Amino acid sequence: MRDDRSFIELRARERARSLLDQGSFRELLDPFEGIMSPWLPQQGIVPQADDGMVVAKGTLNGQPAVVIAIEGTFQGGSMGEVSGAKMAAALELAAEDNRNGIPTQAVLCLETGGVRLQEANLGLAAIADIHAAIVDLRRYTPVIGIIAGTVGCFGGMSIAAALCSYLIVTREARLGLNGPQVIEQEAGIEEYDSRDRPFIWRMTGGEVRYQSGLADALVGDGINAVKTALDEAIALGVPAQHRSDNYAGYLARLTRFDTRQQAEAAQIKQLFAAEGKS
After folding, report:
1. What's the alpha-carbon Rg for the chain, to the nearest Å?
2. Nearest 5°: phi and psi at 176?
3. 136 alpha-carbon distance from chain centroid
4. Domain limits for position 212
5. Any transmembrane segments, and where (predicted)?
6. In 3D, which of 220, 226, 113, 230 has the Cα closest to residue 177?
7. CA distance 239 to 92
8. Distance CA 212, CA 128 (A)
9. Which residue of 87, 165, 230, 248 lies most exposed, with the fewest beta carbons within 10 A?
């Protein structure tokens, strides 16, 4: 059955439910468990009962799967101690399943600004655990990341996206190590104007990331389009070489980039043209 509702407009829980086979959705550590950040109330911030992280077990095309979705509307999808631990543990258990002969697939819905500043080192430690868990799991089964919008994927979680076996993006998606406001703060508005939305999307938007070969599929906003791309990524299996394993090739390209001039989308595409998409 086709479902052309906007994937971007769905909250994290609905995104996870829409990707899994109908009727198979089962949430782990749901809001009724009341496992939330102990640190946010101490700083006058109202916590959320699931800490902005949804972990759902179910099936994808009849095969065991876990979908982990970040709620971008809570604290900008930032990663704290609890939310990070939920994602890392889910990935670690999926890897354990695969070692025990249960071929569990993993999908990450990434809408996050990175580490939660209010939890600082705790969040950073959790993100490091997530990175290690992705690298472990992707040996057995593709780990597929989806960046749809509207938050984008930044900070340490952009590294998590880069570690995924395959990455699916929409044109509304954004992917970058540093967010626009951080770059503007550190380098000045002349270098990066965070209010210039067309410029930002030309630099970090889903389309340019796909054309540069840093994402594997560029899809429309409909749920059906996202699910089709997900099925195709799963069918490809574990890639012969992950992007992150080709660091030497990317470093060689970066050394050829002239940092004395303002970067433009055309330069980015040309820089990665050898491995980019046509």
Report:
1. 18
2. -165, 155
3. 17
4. 12-271
5. 143-169
6. 113
7. 20
8. 26
9. 248
Say whether pTM exceeds 0.90.
Answer: yes
164 contacts 151 by C-beta, under 8 angstroms = no
Q: What is the DSSP letter of 245?
A: G
Q: What is the pLDDT of residues 167-224, one digit of tens each?
A: 999 999 999 999 888 889 998 888 888 899 998 999 899 999 999 899 999 999 999 9
Which residues, other chains included, contact 94 with Cβ-Cβ below 8 Å and sequence gap of 6+? 66, 104, 105, 106, 137, 141
State both tokens at 141: 């089964």
Does any domain span residue 202? yes
Does a structural domain hold residue 278? no
> Has residue 66 been placed in a domain?
yes
Close Cβ partners of 60 (under 8 Å, ≥ 6 residues apart): 19, 20, 21, 105, 107, 230, 231, 234
How far apart are the C-alpha atoms of 63 and 59, rounded to whole Å? 5
Residue with tokens 């009727």, as numbered in its chain = 23
Instruction: With beta carbons less than 8 A apart as the criterion, state whether 219 and 168 touch.
Output: yes
Burial status of residue 91 (CB atoms within 10 A of its CB: 0-12, 13-18, 19 or more): buried
Quick check: 74 and 48 in contact, CB under 8 A? yes
CATH of the domain at 183: 3.90.226.10
